[in-house]
UniProtKB/TrEMBL annotation:
<feature type="transmembrane region" description="Helical">
    <location>
        <begin position="219"/>
        <end position="241"/>
    </location>
</feature>
<keyword id="KW-0813">Transport</keyword>
<dbReference type="InterPro" id="IPR035906">
    <property type="entry name" value="MetI-like_sf"/>
</dbReference>
<keyword id="KW-1003">Cell membrane</keyword>
<protein>
    <submittedName>
        <fullName>ABC transporter permease</fullName>
    </submittedName>
</protein>
<keyword id="KW-0472">Membrane</keyword>
<keyword id="KW-1133">Transmembrane helix</keyword>
<dbReference type="GO" id="GO:0005886">
    <property type="term" value="C:plasma membrane"/>
</dbReference>
<feature type="transmembrane region" description="Helical">
    <location>
        <begin position="446"/>
        <end position="466"/>
    </location>
</feature>
<feature type="transmembrane region" description="Helical">
    <location>
        <begin position="248"/>
        <end position="270"/>
    </location>
</feature>
<feature type="transmembrane region" description="Helical">
    <location>
        <begin position="111"/>
        <end position="137"/>
    </location>
</feature>
<feature type="transmembrane region" description="Helical">
    <location>
        <begin position="365"/>
        <end position="398"/>
    </location>
</feature>
<feature type="transmembrane region" description="Helical">
    <location>
        <begin position="63"/>
        <end position="90"/>
    </location>
</feature>
<feature type="transmembrane region" description="Helical">
    <location>
        <begin position="472"/>
        <end position="490"/>
    </location>
</feature>
<keyword id="KW-0812">Transmembrane</keyword>
<feature type="transmembrane region" description="Helical">
    <location>
        <begin position="313"/>
        <end position="344"/>
    </location>
</feature>
Length: 512
């Protein structure tokens, strides 16, 4: 059994302490979390669902194929626009206003963007493309700039001093990271397929729309068909997505989406949205020179803050913290299940399939399914977030652990002892780093799951949109954005203080 030196032990103790602090916080939040199960028998509902899922109904396979093609088209066009915009922003990312702009647009979930854009562009292809492209542009700018910062600086230093900025970037910096840019874009396309499917829950004609329709009708066999087609899209993406074919895919996607009968964007709608809809109601309808107008505005802010923003924020953080701890537990249990050294080759294949399903299923879609079983509470949201993010972390940890077999002693233990005394101590720092990286994402996803009826920020935002009170929705979105940015700052400082900044940086950005 390997011994830990005093220096290593001193570095390990803060990392264990921070993990225990998150665990105890989650335990303390359990009494105030709404974990109630609906009055019906969840196991009976699960049995009926399982029966349907085991007998998929492909009767509507023609229409499902059309919907699957739309899902892919939205994803490809969204990534193309987002990557293009992110690439243009990359050289400017070091400028503070540009960086803050990118942080702001990526802190708002694609579903929130879709709901806002529908007020301007309606239920159209433009809405779906921009809902993916806008947050992805901020993500691409961040990740591309990180790749550039970590590239070898010597080629830039060796070029003539009078070389213009564009030439220096194109010939001395870009070639060093072009392969990484392509690899990350492919990863982001996989994320976009998930985002595109989820956009169906707000009415866009993707696989999520079909899933919602079949669930409401109790057609679980058709639900199984939708899920099988969706998983096949994700699983085979590396086979059909080839870079030489990318321009053809993009042209085909544009043509496919152009065939949709969608309402045109009206300039008047955009002008009304920017100059009237998003303006707080007291300021919109009052005289700005009057004290009464600003008093009504103060009352409006007070009401939104204390009646909606703070309760929604509290529920969001409860869901996020419980889901983060659950994700950590799932990751610690799940990552050894894909290591042949611990579970054997057959066991590793089975574990790999389980993690692929877990990380490929969007949190929103998984929460929707669990909502049918357990009813409306925080439980479906916590389980969905924990299982999905735990599967992502477990996959990355397992991938990072595969090389450890070369470093093991000939007399290394086997099975659970190998996991506990050899593998986990070496990968624990990466585990914490990945958890901190996922923290911001889990908070963002916790907010959006309110659209399903959970009392997080998304619930209040969705209600405001339904009541045509866009000004309230914008205020609540700004609160969500600020909180997400604060969580990101706290996460970075925790990683720095624990010496985790250099761990898993690329791995964490290669998964959405």
């Amino acid at each position: 059994m390997p011994s830990i030196t005093a220096e290593a032990g001193a570095g390990l103790r803060p990392r264990i302490s921070i993990a225990l602090a998150f665990l105890f916080l989650a335990i303390a939040l359990l009494p105030v979390a709404d974990l109630n199960v609906a009055g019906h028998d969840p196991w009976a509902e699960l049995g009926r669902m399982a029966t349907g899922l085991l007998s998929p109904d492909f009767a509507a396979i023609g229409y499902l194929s059309y919907t699957a093609a739309l899902t892919v088209a939205f994803a490809i066009c969204g990534v193309a626009v987002g990557a293009g915009a992110g690439f243009l922003l990359t050289p400017l990312y070091h400028i503070l206003p540009i960086r803050l702009f990118c942080v702001a647009i990526r802190s708002i979930h694609e579903l929130f963007w879709a709901i806002l854009l529908m007020q301007i562009t309606g239920l159209s292809a433009t809405t779906g493309i921009l809902a993916i492209a806008i947050p992805y542009a901020g993500i691409f700018a961040k990740v591309f700039s990180e790749y550039l910062d970590e590239a070898d600086p010597r080629p830039v230093r060796s070029i003539p001093a009078r070389t213009d900025v564009i030439s220096a970037f194109s010939y001395a910096r870009l070639p060093l990271v072009l392969q990484e840019f392509g690899t990350y874009t492919l990863y982001r396309l996989e994320c976009a397929l998930r985002s595109s499917a989820v956009l169906g829950f707000v009415g866009l004609p993707t696989l999520g729309f079909q899933l919602d329709t079949f669930f409401k009708q109790g057609m679980y066999g058709a639900v199984a068909a939708v899920l099988i087609i969706y998983y096949l899209l994700i699983a085979t993406m590396r086979l059909w997505m080839r870079w030489p074919l990318a321009p053809l895919y993009l042209l085909a996607s544009i043509g496919f989406l152009a065939s949709l009968q969608t309402p045109p964007m009206a300039a008047g709608m955009l002008r009304r949205f920017l100059t009237y809809d998003i303006v707080p109601a007291p300021l919109r309808n009052g005289d700005l020179s009057q004290t009464e107008t600003w008093q009504r505005f103060g009352e409006w802010l007070h009401m939104l803050t204390f009646d909606q923003a703070l309760p929604g924020l509290a529920a969001t953080m409860i869901v996020a913290q419980l889901a983060l701890v659950l994700a950590g537990i799932v990751a610690l249990i799940g990552f050894p299940l894909i290591l042949p050294l611990i579970v054997g080759r057959a066991g590793a294949w089975a574990g790999h399939i389980g993690l692929v399903i877990g990380r490929s299923t969007p949190e929103y879609m998984l929460a929707y399914v669990l909502l049918q079983i357990f009813g409306p509470s925080m439980l479906p949201a916590i389980l969905a977030l924990g299982l999905h993010n735990g599967a992502i972390i477990a996959h990355l940890m397992g991938h990072q652990s595969r090389h450890l077999s070369k470093d093991l002693r000939p007399d290394a233990p086997k099975g659970i002892n190998l996991y506990a005394w050899e593998v986990l101590p070496r990968i624990y720092g990466n585990f914490l780093a990945l958890c901190f990286y996922r923290w911001e994402i889990i908070v963002r996803e916790s907010a959006i799951l309110g659209l399903l009826g959970v009392s997080t920020m998304g619930y209040y935002i969705g209600t405001a949109i339904q009541e045509l009170r866009t000004d309230r929705a914008i205020f609540l979105l700004l609160v969500t954005m600020i909180v997400t940015m604060v969580i990101d700052v706290i996460s970075k400082r925790c990683r720095t203080s624990l010496g985790l900044d250099g761990l898993s940086s690329h791995a964490s950005t290669n998964r959405c």
